Amino acid sequence: MWDPQVAALAEHFRVVRYDTRGHGRSPVPDGPHSIDDLVDDAVALLDRLGVERAHFVGLSLGGMTGMRLAAREPDRVDRLALLCTGAAMPPASNWTDRAATVRGGGTGVIAQAVVSRWFTESLRGQSPDRIASFEAMVAATPAEGYAGCCEVIAEMDLTGDLPSIRARTLVLAGEDDPAAPPSMMAALAEHIPDAELLVVPQSAHLANVEQPETVTEALVQHLTAD
Ligand SMILES: O=C(O)CC1=CCC(=O)O1
């Protein structure tokens, strides 16, 4: 997911990417899981790598992990970048219904609908092969891993954490993101004390993929600024 940014970030930083539990090449532990479990995973990874303090960049569920990490473990987070995410995503039934659907039929049955919210209609029309590769990625995600993370979002409300985030924070929204619209992102920027909001035009939920130059430049600027 971060392929478009990694080379530019690696010019400045040691870059570590990881798959959230239940996704990609990470294990699918028994649930139920909570946002604190996802934070425990991030802290365990930092500990394993001997990293005391890091910048954290997260999109969607990764951003939720970043918010909770920065609020719960303020000494471990230097700067924070939150992309296309929210402190809560009600109603919970959207997520518990989705969990039930994938447990019943696998992630393949939702792949097309999910990815249709990740990119604008314009990109979907121009790059069907790219869209197909993201649909394949969703369809390859273990059903239990995906469902367990849907339940994390269903249960999660980080609204009370926002004022205690000390990290300087970039809040980056996709202008056309139906999942985390700019109004939701503006609320994050309003309640996190040292936050700046950037709305990226012509992008939906995966703004970093659809507008890679704009997002990479914003991240490098945010993470390297004095
Ligand atoms: O895939 C989606 O439906 C969009 C989304 C919102 C939060 C999240 O983790 O994914």
Overview of the structural elements:
InterPro entries: AB_hydrolase (IPR050471), AB_hydrolase_1 (IPR000073), AB_hydrolase_fold (IPR029058), PcaD/CatD (IPR026968). Its EC number is 3.1.1.24. This is 3-oxoadipate enol-lactonase. It is an enzyme of class 3 (hydrolase). It holds the Pfam family Abhydrolase_1. The chain is of the alpha/beta class and 226 residues long. Strand 1, helix 3 and strand 2 form a beta-alpha-beta unit. The protein has a four-stranded parallel sheet, sandwiched between helices. The longest helix has 15 residues. The two termini are 28 Å apart. The protein is globular. Bound molecules: the ligand O=C(O)CC1=CCC(=O)O1. The site of the ligand O=C(O)CC1=CCC(=O)O1 has 8 residues, from loops.
Protein structure class: alpha/beta
If you compute it from the alpha carbons, what radius of gyration comes out, rounded to the nearest whole angstrom? 17 Å
What share of the residues lie within helices? 40-55%
How many helix segments? 11
Enzyme class: hydrolase
Domain AB hydrolase-1: 1-211
Keywords: Hydrolase
EC number: 3.1.1.24
